[in-house]
Each structure stands twice: as C-alpha cells, then as structure tokens.
Amino acid sequence: MKRDVLASLSDEKLVVYVREKDKEAYSEVVRRYGDKLWRYVQYMIRDGDLAAEIVQRAMVKGYENLNSFDVRRKFSSWIYRIAHNETISEMRGRKKILYWPLDADLWGVFESREQSPEDKLDDKLMKEWLDSCMAELSEKYRAVLVLYYLEEKSYEEISEILRISMGTVGTRLSRGKALVKKLCKRNNGER
C-alpha cells in the first residue's frame, strides 16, 4: 500500500492492516508516533539520547505485541502506555536527574519577533528559573502535566495511558500546577 494511503488510515485501521497484511506498514506507526513519544519521554527523563533509546524499545514492544492491541480502544493511548512503562523502568534504575531542560515548544510564550538583548537575557533567566522548579516535581505530577499541556491529551487518554482514574488525573493536574507554583515561589525567595 502506498504511503499516502497508509497516512490516510486511522490508527486503528492501520494496526489492523499491519496485523493482517503488511508488517512493513508499521513504519507509518513509527512515523506518526516517534517524535511525539520522544518528546513525552524526553520531558520525563530529561535526556534526549536516552529518550530515543526508550522510544525505540517502546516501538519494538508495540510491534511485537500488536496482536494484543484491542482495536476498540485508542491506539495512541496504548503506544503511549508502552513508552510510559519503558520510561518508568528506566527511571527506577537510575539516580534522579536534577536538571529538566525544556524545549522551545513550551517556551513559545516567552518569544517575540523583536527582542532586545535585555529581553533575551530575561527570557533565558526565566526559563532557567522555571526549569529548576520543574526539576523538583515528582514523576506522577510531571507525567500528567506533560501529557495534558504539552501532548494535549484528554483526561480519558491520560487515564488510559497512566492507568489511573479520571478523578485522579484531575487531582494530579490540580496538585501538580499548585506544586509548580509553590516551587517557583520558593525558588524565587517568596513564601
């Protein structure tokens, strides 16, 4: 099947096609989800190279377990869950990483077309300050915040990915935001 036809299929139809007819078409799944999963994993572990390794492992596991996927569910939640599990396994085996570098996607609000050198310095300092606040946030809150705000997942999708109730998603989102605010105030010398 041609790439443009594969690209037009829903995730679930693509999975059925891969399972029944063409294992090579899994490359379309990798094309659709590789960068998204990398971004999610990178935000969780704060290491781009390691994130790429984890995503590769997740994609291989997804391929190997494709027959266990229930096409009545959302494929994106299923593949994110695999990547999440791989990430958590990796995090458990390592020391806590103290720095959380964020990319330009998150910081777009700070950028304007014309900035003076002073504005650029202020933005850089603001990013570093927020990075230090986020570095202190635990995985359970960081995962929900990243999935909701950066990956634009719904409560239902986050619930499926993290295997927590939708109520817990809302609670962690609310508490996570409050913790970020508290950490940022503390790191700024406020009470």
Automatic annotation (TrEMBL):
Designated name of the protein: RNA polymerase ECF-type sigma factor
Classification via SUPFAM superfamilies: Sigma2 domain of RNA polymerase sigma factors, Sigma3 and sigma4 domains of RNA polymerase sigma factors
Signal peptide start and end residues: none
Claim: Oxidoreductase is one of the keywords in the record: no
Organism: Candidatus Chazhemtobacterium aquaticus
Keywords: Sigma factor, Transcription, Transcription regulation
Keyword Transmembrane helix: no
Gene Ontology biological-process entries: DNA-templated transcription initiation
InterPro entries xref list: RNA_pol_sigma-70-like, RNA_pol_sigma-70_dom, RNA_pol_sigma70_r2, RNA_pol_sigma70_r4_t2, RNA_pol_sigma_r2, RNA_pol_sigma_r3/r4-like, WH-like_DNA-bd_sf
Entry similarity comment: Belongs to the sigma-70 factor family. ECF subfamily.
